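Contributing new records

If you add data, match the layout below exactly. Sequence lines come first and carry their own label; structure lines follow with theirs. Keep one chain per record. Anything else will be rejected by the validation script.
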Amino acid sequence: MNLAASDHAYFRSARFLLSTPNFDELPRDDGVEVAVVGRSNVGKSSVLNALCDQRGLARTSRTPARTQHVVVFELGKRRRLLDLPGFGYAAVGGEVRERWATDLPRVLHERRGLYGLVLLADARRPLGQEELALLEGCARRGLRIQLALNKADKLGRQAGLRALAAATAAFGRSGETEKPLLMSASTKMGIERLRGTLHAWFETGVKEGPGLHA
């Protein structure tokens, strides 16, 4: 989906709203939200910066599990992106892991305005059990789902196509699942397509109103 300049404007005007470790401190649940999640060090912050065409919107780091809070970005009236903590990093302390285990399901299953989920995975690695379980749980809830294989620029064309085929076979397509895509935050591969998908989600979610996917 190619966006006109006016459609792209609200992504470019995205701004940091808040960062919190606690579900109950999230903004009032009265808009349309899209959550972005993935394993630690998969490049979520870089993808968010590329998506919103802002170099410093989301803080990037070479240290895995840097994002240990839910970080909320506002994209204008009634549109928000939720940057969820990276999972699967063993060095994170037990208290943090326990909080994630409690609060992340609440974000994904209790936020009335949550319309869709972007799962970022590493194109060089097969989907793990945590990723598949997350996808299946969100599909059961009825969320729109976009699986994006990041760091695809590090693969050759044929290897990238094999990775895409393997990911598609592992999860399949059902309900509101979008076709998986190859992505690279550094080369901007797949960014326009992801932006178009999210734009469609936001537009549909605003028209439908809150609470339809609770």
